[in-house]
């Protein structure tokens, strides 16, 4: 029976227990109701009993487990994973990316990273590619397109240090800092190869290797390259092309003036040496006839007495012969007569045709000086005493009048001619008084006697020997040279010993034999190499003189230019003199003959004679001066205003330069270019003398032969042009500027250049060359402003110069004229002649104007490069085959020197030195180690101008060396753009580099350099300070890294009057790659679980664009996102480690894969920057120009026309520009050359940077570089048609491009992945684990609760049933 409470229930075997219980309850319902209270009491007691026996706490625990389990599952699986964790993650990201004062104070690693981030190898690489110019010569001389080849990469690592870091005191919203940096060479050349793959440039193709062999390795920076020279353009901008030409051309005109007023005059004098010398020789021979005949008469008187002598004298020398034995040595060496032609009758008869006109005895005695009447005899040519030559001079004058003698130039003036005639008439009058002869008879007698004296007896060996003796042994100024009694320094005198005495030797006297060979015209034969009447010999002697001059001064004589002169002096002429003297004197075959003297003696003679000819006689000799000036004055054209006398000999040079009169009179040619440049006519460097150095020759060559100047006009012009003064420079600059500038107008428009527009032109024939009336050289400018019109007759005049010159050469066989073809016109040479005929002058039809100023301008532009920059080895080492690689527009050096270490630029040094000299500063720059590389025509040293080894001195004229600038001894001065000379001022530094000094790890210098902000060594004081200021992101996370001040500037003026560039954007200046906006939790590309019903973050693509500020290049760029949404992207931009180097590279290490967002610079960004200087950049003529596509101006930072752009001009090529076609060798590759940033969106961390920018220089055709961009007439000036964005002919020459690469460090990847990238996975895993744990807990509680409850029910059932 079952038991329920206090009642028993009978058991019915046919009923189950529950049925029996129900029946029982129904039957006894009334009873239960009565006893319900007692029943409740019984149940409560059972509960207490249950609690006592079955521990009810377990149920509570189970209930708690269920509640807690489900609650924590909800919190973990929803609240935490969907809300709280994302919030806490975001806060942690902010904590890491935002630095503040507290980080600074605690030296937190994030702050230390900001202060100086240590980059591991091959994660930061600054690569430089230089554009090697292959054809500088073709660019400069032929106007060809530049052929360029990329050399590099040259790899370096940049170390950046920030200092003076200051946070806002209140909330660290802003941080200000300064920074300095330097570069180190990359530790391994293979780093470039590694970075190639890390920079996402590899294709990983199975068909080809991305970087075979060492193709992608860094190149050794000792490689030598030729690049465009930024220092050249810096100087060009500061002084302007016309200003530089105006400065440098002073040397041109100074050398021209010096050559023409000094050496040219010497050449003119040397030209007259043979003639004047022969005149004096003839005169001295005539004078010595007196001594010969006086001695002969005395000898005959002794032998035969007066009557015999008088009779023989009156007789016919051919019939009444005087025996040889009677004459002895007093003979005449002639084929026309016996050896002793003492009789005079035949000479008188030959005129009178009547022997009755012969001398009477009385007349003979008067002539012989034997008159016995006591009368004073002033007419006998024989009887004057000692050195009194007055009597013989009468007869010489008469002979000159009769033209039996020609004593040359000094006897050409009217006064002398009149005196000669008077003396002749006086002799006739005297003759008539002797013995009653008529005037006609006396005329025959006097004339016959003159013929006898000076046509017969001047052939006497004794008279010639006497002349030789006078010349070679007499002291200077002991004999007269003409009937006027002029003393002329004719004697050799001390010159015989002058050269030998310079070396403390005693010179050997010149004997009569040598003298005869040198002076006597009868000795002028092709085998006589010392006779001065032969021009070849005279030229050789002039060359010997040049050698001897150097030798005497202790200068070099064996250089290539003078080697022939040395050979002439030391060998040839030594042998000539020795052989001519020693013949029959020092006979080697005769044992008894004396030994020939040492050859040195004859070298001394050769040098002494050459000095005598070209110093003592041919220069500074009054007699010579009188002869030359007389000759020219006889012929000088009346229209010229020159004064040619002893005080104005320089006018010969000025006349030649102005109007060509001198060579026209001498040789019938208009220019010294038409004279053989040999010996006596080698008066200037070949480049000047043979290339039409005269103003007049240039005007003829241009087809304007009537555009000459008078001598005094030309003198004033040339003196002004050669003046080293500010006014002289202004004149020359004005000439160049006005002569090469086209001024457009309504009626004068050419190639698009119209009203109020100016542009470069090869020549402006309408240029206004007038200077202000107050200017020192206003009057000179008036002369230069005169204009002439071309016409066909002028062409005929030019052609006539050619014909006359050819006639002199071919028909008359003149010795000196040459190069006649200089004056051929189209008339005789249609292919290559001067472009002048009956219809046109050059490209223009007649009549075409030209001004004198145009001629001067052409001299400057055509001569300057060759005669200064090339000859002085400033732009090349070989002036004849100039490659233009050494300096000027191009420089050649090691890559490291061009990029960092610096190269001393010789062209700049030259311009600086000329500027200093013009300003009177008394300082100059000179290489510390001057190596001779060549010699001029006088063996003058030409130095290498390479100062890169030991630097250069700054030398003061009075104080000597005041500073030495050397990379080894004082690198701070070497690298700095300026040189501080203390009280002597600050001067430019001729050392050029792209980043001068940045390889030098010197904190003090680098701080100074960074604060100065001198872009490419350009202008100073561009920025207000050296402090940068950026936002930390504490207030506005979106502004993290945004720059507020760049070098103390909140805005930058890119061009005067142009738009301001507001400083803003994430700073990317000077190697800083700062934090970008973190998207935090919403930046995940894949959550790995369902987050708010999605699998990706809302901001996994981050912003559509980022603005960056590349301050040093004056760029503010908005980089556009190129990443595609996840559902459309094939392969997202990513960074993975370890780095994969080939398609087959299977790394065994675990790969870390970081998804990135790529931002690239596009066309719009470049165009926006270029437009900031729209119409605010100006060329050298003041005309505005715009930036081409894909380029932006940095002139505001550098101070000269520097332009930054896309590497290899890929932007210009892709976006519709045309500037890139000006170059051959560019290889645009967008993938390799595009500027981009790869940002990790979660943290905003810059994971990969490729800052790729190209340095360009704007090259503009102008008077200093008048041939560039001219081949095949591709740019005809003036023009606006060449390119639509500027005037004239110009191009943007690539110099280098930088590939500044940074990738996230390998060592930091693991932490980054753990802390950030793996968070969703970790969170998902942890959430699932936690949820699983909590669910298990709840399950356990439920199970426990269930079993406890079941036991509870069972207990109750058991009690009631019992």
Précis, in short:
The chain is an alpha+beta fold and 1362 residues long.
Write up what this structure looks like.
The protein has 1362 residues and is α+β, with helices and mostly antiparallel strands. The protein contains 42 helices and 39 strands. Strands 3, 4, 5, 23, 24, 27, 28, 29, 32, 35, 36, 37, 38 and 39 form a 14-stranded mixed beta sheet that branches. A three-stranded antiparallel beta sheet has the order 15-18-19. Strands 1-2 form a two-stranded antiparallel sheet. β25 and β26 (1060-1062) form a beta hairpin. The radius of gyration is 54 Å and the shape is elongated. The relative contact order is 0.11. Mean pLDDT is 87; it is low at 1-12 and 28-34.
* Beta-strand residue percentage: 5-15%
Q: Provide the structure class.
A: alpha+beta
* Overall pLDDT confidence: 87
Low-confidence runs of at least 5 consecutive residues = 1-12, 28-34
| Biggest β-sheet description | 14 strands, mixed
Shape: elongated
Multimeric state: single chain
Number of helices: 42
C-alpha termini separation? 8 Å
User: How much helical structure, as a percent, in the residues?
Assistant: 40-55%
What radius of gyration results from the CA coordinates? Answer: 54 Å
Count every beta strand, where a strand is a DSSP E run of 2 or more residues: 39
């Amino acid at each position: 029976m079952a038991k329920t409470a206090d009642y028993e229930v009978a058991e019915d075997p046919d009923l189950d227990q529950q049925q029996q219980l129900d029946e029982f309850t129904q039957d006894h319902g009334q009873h239960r109701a009565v006893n319900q209270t007692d029943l409740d009491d019984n149940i409560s007691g059972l509960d207490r009993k249950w609690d006592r026996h079955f521990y009810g706490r377990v149920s509570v625990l189970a209930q708690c487990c269920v509640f807690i389990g489900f609650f924590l599952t909800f919190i973990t699986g929803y609240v935490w994973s969907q809300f709280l964790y994302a919030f806490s993650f975001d806060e942690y990201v902010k904590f890491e990316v935002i630095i503040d004062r507290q980080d600074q104070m605690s030296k937190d690693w994030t702050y230390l990273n900001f202060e100086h981030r240590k980059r591991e190898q091959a994660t930061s690489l600054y690569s430089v590619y230089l554009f090697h110019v292959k054809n500088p010569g073709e660019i400069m001389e032929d106007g060809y397109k530049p052929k360029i080849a990329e050399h590099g990469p040259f790899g370096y690592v940049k170390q950046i240090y920030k200092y003076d870091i200051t946070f806002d005191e209140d909330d660290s919203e802003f941080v200000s800092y300064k920074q300095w940096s330097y570069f180190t060479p990359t530790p391994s050349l293979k780093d470039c190869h590694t970075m190639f793959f890390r920079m996402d440039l590899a294709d990983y193709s199975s068909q080809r290797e991305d970087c075979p062999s060492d193709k992608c390795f860094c190149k050794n920076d000792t490689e030598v390259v030729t690049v465009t020279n930024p220092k050249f353009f810096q100087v060009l901008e500061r002084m302007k092309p016309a200003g530089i030409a105006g400065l440098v051309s002073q040397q041109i005109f100074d050398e021209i003036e010096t050559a023409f007023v000094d050496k040219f005059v010497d050449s003119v004098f040397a030209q007259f040496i043979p003639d004047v010398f022969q005149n004096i020789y003839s005169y001295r021979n005539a004078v010595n006839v007196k001594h010969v005949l006086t001695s002969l008469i005395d000898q005959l008187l002794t032998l035969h007495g007066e009557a015999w002598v008088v009779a023989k004298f009156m007789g016919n020398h051919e019939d009444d012969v005087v025996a040889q034995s009677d004459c002895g040595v007093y003979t005449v060496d002639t084929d026309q007569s016996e050896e002793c032609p003492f009789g005079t009758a035949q000479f008188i008869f030959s005129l009178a045709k009547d022997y009755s006109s012969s001398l009477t005895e009385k007349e003979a005695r008067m002539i012989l000086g034997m008159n016995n009447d006591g009368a004073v005899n002033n007419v006998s040519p024989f009887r004057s005493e000692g050195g009194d030559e007055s009597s013989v001079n009468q007869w010489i004058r008469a002979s000159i009048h009769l033209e039996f003698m020609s004593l040359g130039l000094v006897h050409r003036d009217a006064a002398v001619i009149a005196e000669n005639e008077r003396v002749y008439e006086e002799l006739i009058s005297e003759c008539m008084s002797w013995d009653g002869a008529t005037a006609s008879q006396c005329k025959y007698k006097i004339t016959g006697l003159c013929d006898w004296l000076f046509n017969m007896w001047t052939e006497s060996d004794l008279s010639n020997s006497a002349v030789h003796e006078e010349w070679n042994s007499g002291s200077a100024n002991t004999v007269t040279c003409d009937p006027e009694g002029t003393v002329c320094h004719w004697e050799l005198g001390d010159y015989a010993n002058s050269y030998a005495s310079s070396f403390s030797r005693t010179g050997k006297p010149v004997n009569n034999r040598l003298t005869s060979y040198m002076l006597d015209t009868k000795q002028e034969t092709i085998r006589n190499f010392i006779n001065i009447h032969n021009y070849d010999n005279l030229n050789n002697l002039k060359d010997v003189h040049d050698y001897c001059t150097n030798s005497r001064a202790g200068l070099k004589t064996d250089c290539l230019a003078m080697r022939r002169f040395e050979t002439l002096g030391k060998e040839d002429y030594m042998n000539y003199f020795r052989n001519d003297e020693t013949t029959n004197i020092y006979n080697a075959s005769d044992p008894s003959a004396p030994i020939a003297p040492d050859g040195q003696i004859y070298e001394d003679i050769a040098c002494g004679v050459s000095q005598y000819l070209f110093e003592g006689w041919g220069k500074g000799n009054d007699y010579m001066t009188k002869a030359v000036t007389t000759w020219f004055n006889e012929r000088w054209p009346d229209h010229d205003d020159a004064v040619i006398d002893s005080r104005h000999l320089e006018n010969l040079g000025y006349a030649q330069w102005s109007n060509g009169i001198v060579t026209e009179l001498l040789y019938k040619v208009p220019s010294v270019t038409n004279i053989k440049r040999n010996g006596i006519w080698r008066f200037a460097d070949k480049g000047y003398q043979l290339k039409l150095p005269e103003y007049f020759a240039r005007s003829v060559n241009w087809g304007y032969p009537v555009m000459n100047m008078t001598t005094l006009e030309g003198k004033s012009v040339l003196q002004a042009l050669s003046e080293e003064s500010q006014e002289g420079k202004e004149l020359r600059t004005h000439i160049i500027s006005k002569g090469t500038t086209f001024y457009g107008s309504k009626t004068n428009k050419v190639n698009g250049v119209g009203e109020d527009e100016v542009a470069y032109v090869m020549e402006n024939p309408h240029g206004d060359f007038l200077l202000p009336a107050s200017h020192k050289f206003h009057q000179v400018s008036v002369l230069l402003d005169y204009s002439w019109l071309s016409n066909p007759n002028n062409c005929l005049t030019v052609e006539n110069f050619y014909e006359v010159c050819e006639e002199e050469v071919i028909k008359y066989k003149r010795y000196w004229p040459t190069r006649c073809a200089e004056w051929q016109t189209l008339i005789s040479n249609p292919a290559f002649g001067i472009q002048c005929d009956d219809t046109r002058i050059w490209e223009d039809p007649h009549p075409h104007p030209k001004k004198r100023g145009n001629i001067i301008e052409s001299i400057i532009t055509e001569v300057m490069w060759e005669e200064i920059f090339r000859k002085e080895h400033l732009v090349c080492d070989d002036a004849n085959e100039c490659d233009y690689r050494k300096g000027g527009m191009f420089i050649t050096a090691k890559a490291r020197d061009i990029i960092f270490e610096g190269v001393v630029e010789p062209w700049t040094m030259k311009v600086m030195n000329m500027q200093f000299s013009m300003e009177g500063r008394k300082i100059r720059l000179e290489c510390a180690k001057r190596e001779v590389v060549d010699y001029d025509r006088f063996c003058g040293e030409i130095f290498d101008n390479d100062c890169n080894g030991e630097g250069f001195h700054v030398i003061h004229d009075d104080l000597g060396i005041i500073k030495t600038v050397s990379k080894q001894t004082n690198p701070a001065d070497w690298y700095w753009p300026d040189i501080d000379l203390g009280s002597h001022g600050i001067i430019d530094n001729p050392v050029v580099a792209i980043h001068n000094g940045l390889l030098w790890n010197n904190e003090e210098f680098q701080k100074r350099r960074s604060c100065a902000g001198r872009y490419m060594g350009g202008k100073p004081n561009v920025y207000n300070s050296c402090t940068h200021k950026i936002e930390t992101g504490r207030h506005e996370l979106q502004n993290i890294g945004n720059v507020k001040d760049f070098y103390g500037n909140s805005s930058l003026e890119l061009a005067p009057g142009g738009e301001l560039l507001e400083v803003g954007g994430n700073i990317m200046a000077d190697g800083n790659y700062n934090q970008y906006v973190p998207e935090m939790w919403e930046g995940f590309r894949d959550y790995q679980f369902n987050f708010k019903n999605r699998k990706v973050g809302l901001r996994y693509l981050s912003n559509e664009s980022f603005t960056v500020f590349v301050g040093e290049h004056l760029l503010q760029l908005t980089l556009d996102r190129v990443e595609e949404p996840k559902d459309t992207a094939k392969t997202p931009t990513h960074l993975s480690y370890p780095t994969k180097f080939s398609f087959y590279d299977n790394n065994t290490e675990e790969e870390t894969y970081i998804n990135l967002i790529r931002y690239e610079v596009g066309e719009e960004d470049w165009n926006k920057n270029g437009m900031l200087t729209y119409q605010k950049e100006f060329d050298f003529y003041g005309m505005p120009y715009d930036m081409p596509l894909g380029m932006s101006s940095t002139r505001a930072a550098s101070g000269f026309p520097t332009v930054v752009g896309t590497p290899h001009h890929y932007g210009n090529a892709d976006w519709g520009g045309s500037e890139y076609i000006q170059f051959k060798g560019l290889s645009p590759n967008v993938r390799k050359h595009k500027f981009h940033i790869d940002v990790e969106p979660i943290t905003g961390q810059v994971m990969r940077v490729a800052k790729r920018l190209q340095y360009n220089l704007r090259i503009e055709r102008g008077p200093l570089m008048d041939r560039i961009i001219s081949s095949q007439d591709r740019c005809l000036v003036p023009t606006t048609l060449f390119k639509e964005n500027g005037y004239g002919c110009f191009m943007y020459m690539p110099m280098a491009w930088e590939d500044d690469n940074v990738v996230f460090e390998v060592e930091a990847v693991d932490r980054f992945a753990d802390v950030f990238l793996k968070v969703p996975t970790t969170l998902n895993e942890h959430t699932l684990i936690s949820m699983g744990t909590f669910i298990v807990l709840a399950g356990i509680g439920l199970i426990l609760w269930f079993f406890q409850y079941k036991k509870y029910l069972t207990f109750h059932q058991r009690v009631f049933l019992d």
